[in-house]
Amino acid sequence: MQTLRLVLAVAVSLALAPYAAAQESVRIGVVQPTTGPVAYDGNIYVNTVKMLVDDMNAKGGVLGRKIELVVEDGACNPAQSVNAAEKLVVRDKVVALLGAFCSTSTAAVMEVAKKHKVPLITGISTAAQLTEQGNPYFFRAVATTPMLGNAFGGVLPKAVKAKRFAFLVLNDDWGRSMAASYPKTIENAGGQVVATEFFQQSDLQFLSQITKVKAANPDAIVLAANTQQAVALSKQIRELGISVPLIGEGAWTSDSYIKLAGPASEDVYGLVEYVYTIKSPINEAFVKAFQAKLKENPSKFAGAAHNAISIMVDAIRRAGAADPEKIRDALEKTDYNGIVGNIRFDAKHQAYGQTVYLAHVKNGVPEVVETAQIAKP
Amino acid sequence: MSPSITILAQHLLNGVLIGCAYALIAMGLTMIFGVMNIANFAHGEFYMLGGFVAFYLVSLIGLNYFAALPLAVVVVVALALVLQHAIFRRLREAPMMTTTLVTIGLSIFLENFALLLWGPQPQSIPTPFATKPLSFLGVYTTPLYVFCMGVTVALIIVGHVLIRRTRMGKAMRATFQNKEAAALVGIRIDRIYAYAFAFGAALAAAAGAVLGGFIPVEPATGGIVTLKAFIVVILGGMGSFVGAIVGGLVLGLAEALGAGYMPSGWKDAIGFFAVILVLLFRPEGLFKRA
Amino acid sequence: MPEPASYRVATTVVLVALCAVPLVVHDEYYLHLFIVSGVFVVAVLGLDLIVGYVGQLSLAHAAFFAMGAYTSALLFVRLKWSMWLGLPAAALVAGVVALALGSVILRTRGHRFIIITVVFAELMRLVATNWVDMTRGFMGLPGLTIPALDIPGVGSIDIASKSRFYYVVLIAAIAAFVLCRVIVRSSIGRKFVLIRENEPLAESLGISAFRYSMIAFAVGAALAGAAGSLYAHYVGFVSPDLFNFSYVTIMLIMVILGGKGTLAGPALGAVIFTFLPELLREAAHWRMIVFATILIVATLYMPKGIVFPLVTHLLARQGRPRNARAP
Fold first, then answer.
1. Which chain A residues contact residue C242 at CB under 8 A?
2. d(CA A37, nearest CA chain C) in Å
């Protein structure tokens, strides 16, 4: 009798198994800095993805299944990000990865993605080498600094009415590539680079560098910095008596920057991949939902998150199965229209075709004053 | 004035501003070292806490800026006294490794506690000063910078007077020089310890509160400040107040001038090279113990 | 002093268990943690020599670890040297730098020594970050691989998989342990302890604290450098993050809480404090607060550490019945 019961139980479980599998959710892993120096922006990213996934699940999920997000903290530390990614892939069995914010961490996580053959998409990391490694599982859904430079450099002299440009940038790959790529297009448009200064990630006072920049007498200063340093830079630049326009890549038009920098944020220009004042139906809906749920305006990191998760889910849908290989193949054929326009990937899995924006902060609101389209590299 | 002189003057002014801050922080560190023989790895955290508490007093409670600064210092001093009573009192005769490990542990504790409480976002304290820069012969500063310098210089003078002129100061210096003799003479060592630790913490917290107006404070700031303070103290001589003051100014000026005329990436290395030079040629530092 | 029988039994059991790990544990995640623990065992044994045996608190150890990692990585990327060459090179470079640094600072005592080790570590971090032409600064050096094991006559064995690389790390950890044991039990080791306990007496006996500190410092650094090389090739990249103070902290915790001045203590500490943070992943800030509190409390009240005394206590209790038979 016991044996019969056991056999029946097993038989029933086996019969029901396919249904159980169908109910199983589609797991997507997210590696982001929820602690550490860029935790504020990392948390915005995570919260945006969560908000969008909840919305997608309310509309039926993907492939008739619910999307399940598993978030791990990479803290923008390569070793920690690798641990996080390993855990997501090996233990949580995610079929896709989003991450990891900072380029060095993304570079590290890329290796994990390749090893375990799981597609990885980043909406934020802009270091040029990432797409030069020939990693078939890595996709970048954001324009790199050189691409932004090509798109906007020529526009700047006219847009800010300046001829002499000084660069004050972060001493890492991002800042250095900015200082290397923008000058060409600026000079082609009749401008001139008069000074280039660097600062460290841990610096919070920049008086020396600002003084040196001042000595070169620029008409405009181009900067690369994230929120915390952008705020300090803006204030200190104004405090040292420099009143020329500031043009920044990074977090220069986000709510947190404008709030923290206060009057120093007036008249600042942002070279951004996303800004909440973009006029399009998709974006306006997104901004409204974001404001309702998270009580602030979406920054470029929120925009990046929107792109990353939307493109990934779109690929899963087109793949027809929650299979990492199929999703990877589907990603290559992406032709996605979202909050920043049309995005496709080139042979190196670099996104192109999207619109990028020059935003100008007036009365605390970053209005779009110029747009450009990212050309296929 | 010719442009290059103006720029030089600007660099010098920047250097003095930062140097005064270094001096103030290092004075506190050297006090703790001199009296208690403890290398306080958590010193930078007092700076950080001073900044954060001041920020919260001003921005959340809406307290007047000039009242918030001293109050922030008082809060940090209270914390320091608690720590002194709970932990450091027991470490009077402890070996150096023990006390150092304890301060390292404390530093990690306070930094992560701050992270938990306030998050990683850097905050700068809203000040009532006009933001328009003041200029004099082409050299720029702001009312806030002037205030910072004024306060740090005033505190340095006050500290100096306290050590040299008051009875408490004399008792502290006596303990510095010879603990057993001081105890024999009737000086209450426990009390001196508490005063020294509180004083050291107060100076660091004051620096944090005052500078927090233009240099944003975040939990990780503590570590950087501690390192700078140690460099100054090594340069100036561990246990010498004059050394802390001179060392602080020297470091501030060297960094400003170095960054001004060399690739700025190596600005922080200046301090380290200076330490190596001192070690090679004058290990006790510029000044002997006061 | 002969070891109690229970100690020998325990050691054998542990060794057998360690060898069997990849056969029993198939979860790649846990194997990963074992491998990282093994790397840290090598590193903290080196730290223990200077902190536990000689009694000098060096905060530069993590910098030697990172330096070894970078050396190995640079040799791989620029000269195509495999890990088999990179590892000894890393150990050598770290050891030599330690000798150079030590010759300048080991005559200093007290707080100044400690602070200077911190300054040195920071300087190394600055170099790694700013010498972009050499080290690629923040971007780090990616693409490091684990080489195959070429045995002449047998062929090439791929050891890159986690279960195979585990054995490489296990051998390294055992080798480090044996090396330290030999040193510690020799007259050199006895002199270390004498210097720690009573430096003036040692000096009066003609034992130069400076010379023996140098030995501990250099050997310790070389071990850290070797560990760094293993870590770099395993993880696949290096970046200036390796110079963060957090590595110093965790290594100190491993040594102090494991039991400084013993060998098994820090080794156990390395394993426990690699697994523990991962298991406490969720509570990131609380985790560090808890560790910091444990560090303070243990330093104050448990100078022999937590792990080792606990283990020996348990072993001693088992040994007692046998000893009771002695007349």
1. 79
2. 13
